[in-house]
Amino acid sequence: NAGVTQTPKFRILKIGQSMTLQCAQDMNHNYMYWYRQDPGMGLKLIYYSVGAGITDKGEVPNGYNVSRSTTEDFPLRLELAAPSQTSVYFCASAGTGTSGNEQFFGPGTRLTVL
Amino acid sequence: GIQVEQSPPDLILQEGANSTLRCNFSDSVNNLQWFHQNPWGQLINLFYIPSGTKQNGRLSATTVATERYSLLYISSSQTTDSGVYFCAVFSGSYQLTFGKGTKLSVIP
Question: Distance from CA of residue A11 to its chain's centroid?
Fold first, then answer.
């Protein structure tokens, strides 16, 4: 299993541009999450999904959108990029079972908005 | 919301030394995870430990849910242990709430 994969690894955007960060998991997990990590801080939840077709806002959703059309994929859309969105973005997934809601993280996407 | 505090914020160890990292949380939790973020930024799962004690090689963790804290023990530290250690708790709202981390530097 590849686990949680994210693309791209790095991206530089100009102010006002848009982009989609891709996230996929092959563990058949129902739960998927997007977090951002600012320098010297822990992670903060942007959006999450409990299954295909169901998404909800986390702690810091402004400036982002998500969709979940399949179990495997959970893309994050940035519209009208701003310097405040410069951050490292992590996607995570979680299932159920013996490990409960243990979350597994992708390698991250480092985004710079200039 | 739930608060997560980690201590110490920074720790410098000589290779071979032992250490204890602490995580305090302000409310009951359903899940607690410890992560290691290596110098390349990758988040590595160390323990899923809502309560009790677990061990994995040189690392072990104990969570005392009734007293709202968890401890991560690192024995015989190695330079590859360097990085930031995060504690994160899940209180049933779908969100993992992270502490600010403990930055560990292991020097040869």
Answer: 15
Q: Which residue has the tokens 């939790």?
A: B29
In a domain, B78, yes or no: yes
Count of structural domains within chain B: 1
Give chain B positions within 8 Å (CB) of A58: 95
- CA–CA distance, A22 with A66 (Å, rounded to integer): 10
Q: Is residue B45 part of a domain?
A: yes
Show the domain range for B95: 4-102
How many distinct structural domains can be found in chain A? 1
Nearest to B41 among A42, A58, A108 (CB): A108
Whether chain B has a CB inside 8 Å of the CB on A105: the answer is yes
Please identify which residue in the block is written with the tokens 């005392």. Answer: B64
Give dist(CA B46, CA B33) in Å, integer. Answer: 7
Task: Give the CATH number, domain containing residue A9.
Answer: 2.60.40.10
Measured between CA atoms, how close is B42 to chain A, in angstroms?
Answer: 5
B107 is a domain residue: no
pLDDT in tens, chain A (114 residues): 789 999 999 999 999 999 999 999 999 999 999 999 998 888 999 999 999 999 999 989 999 999 999 999 999 999 899 999 999 999 999 987 555 678 999 999 999 999
Q: Which pair of structure tokens corresponds to residue B93?
A: 């709202």
Number of neighbouring beta carbons within 10 Å of residue B79: 11
